[in-house]
């Protein structure tokens, strides 16, 4: 009986350790998008809201939980972004994804640059914090590339690798000091 109790305690400890390590890793790849922008869509995590504006040729999406700004996504139609100053770069689903840490304020910035020249660049600015917020993790994992359809609108197929790669770049940025 003592051996069973020790095994049970060890099992519970391992379960809580593993689940708490993944608590910051919400995965919304299996859920449909709730916000659509040119050539990309994403899902808002529960208890968050989006503030949308269009200053000039940039679509701006502020992701908030109450009064707190978590992240801002910019969809820039002018394509004036260079990946030269970015720390890490990967290619996923025909997009270049790169990340960097702003030296001025510690914010993490992720850029998604599509391979097609006519498509807009997506930049996500994650507000400075101690670690990757679970809602930001979910928000990043939900990103999907979209393509326009002739009848209007766009088609945004599920692409778990795309969103998870974006979230992984953010997680790697938060592991750097």
From TrEMBL:
Signal peptide: 1-23
Keyword Signal: yes
Keywords: Signal
Protein name per the record: Uncharacterized protein
Organism per entry: Cognatiluteimonas sedimenti
Origin organism lineage: Bacteria, Pseudomonadati, Pseudomonadota, Gammaproteobacteria, Lysobacterales
């Amino acid at each position: 009986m003592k051996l069973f109790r020790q095994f049970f305690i060890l099992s519970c400890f391992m379960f809580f350790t593993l689940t708490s390590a993944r608590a910051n890793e919400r995965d919304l790849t299996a859920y449909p998008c709730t916000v659509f922008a040119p050539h990309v869509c994403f899902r808002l995590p529960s208890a968050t809201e989006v503030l949308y504006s269009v200053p000039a040729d940039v679509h701006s999406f502020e992701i908030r939980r109450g009064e707190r700004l978590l992240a801002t996504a910019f969809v820039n139609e002018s394509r004036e972004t260079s990946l030269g100053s970015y720390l890490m770069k990967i290619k996923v689903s025909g997009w270049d994804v790169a990340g960097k840490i702003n030296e001025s304020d510690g914010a993490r910035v992720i850029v998604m640059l599509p391979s097609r020249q006519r498509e807009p660049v997506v930049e996500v600015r994650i507000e400075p914090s101690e670690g990757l917020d679970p809602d930001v993790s979910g928000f990043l994992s939900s990103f999907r590339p979209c393509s326009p359809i002739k009848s209007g609108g766009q088609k945004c197929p599920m692409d778990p690798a795309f969103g998870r790669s974006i979230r992984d770049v953010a997680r790697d940025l938060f592991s750097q000091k």
